[in-house]
């Protein structure tokens, strides 16, 4: 995790699956305490349905608590997110720069 002045960047590598999805959700939920959150999963080798459900849970939590967030996803995650239709609700960015601009370029939450 990289803590910024008003938000957090979480980078994840390896795999997100049934064995670690709950831990992933917990760590990201703890990080979602500022104005913004960026989750960089470009280094993931694989993600299963538990990982996709985790991304959905993160999206719901961020919406509920008013944290702007973005997902930076490589091909593996983009394919999985599109396959299950989650790409219509999860804010996916093409690059880390794009994600940081998208979450930091808006006024602070009320």
TrEMBL record:
Residues 8-103 form the STAS domain. CDD domains: STAS_anti-anti-sigma_factors. PROSITE patterns: STAS (PS50801). SUPFAM superfamilies: SpoIIaa-like. It comes from the Bacteria. This is STAS domain-containing protein. It comes from Mycolicibacterium mageritense. The lineage of its organism: Bacteria, Bacillati, Actinomycetota, Actinomycetes, Mycobacteriales.
């Amino acid at each position: 995790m990289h803590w910024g002045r008003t938000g957090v960047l979480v980078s994840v590598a390896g795999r997100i699956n049934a064995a670690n999805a709950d831990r992933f959700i917990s760590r990201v939920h703890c990080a979602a305490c500022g104005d913004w959150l960026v989750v960089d999963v470009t280094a993931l080798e694989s993600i299963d349905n538990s990982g996709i459900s985790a991304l959905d849970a993160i999206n719901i939590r961020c919406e509920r608590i008013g944290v702007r967030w973005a997902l930076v996803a490589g091909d593996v995650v983009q394919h999985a997110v599109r396959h299950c239709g989650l790409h219509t609700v999860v804010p996916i960015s093409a690059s880390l720069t794009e994600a940081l601009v998208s979450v930091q370029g808006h006024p602070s939450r009320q």
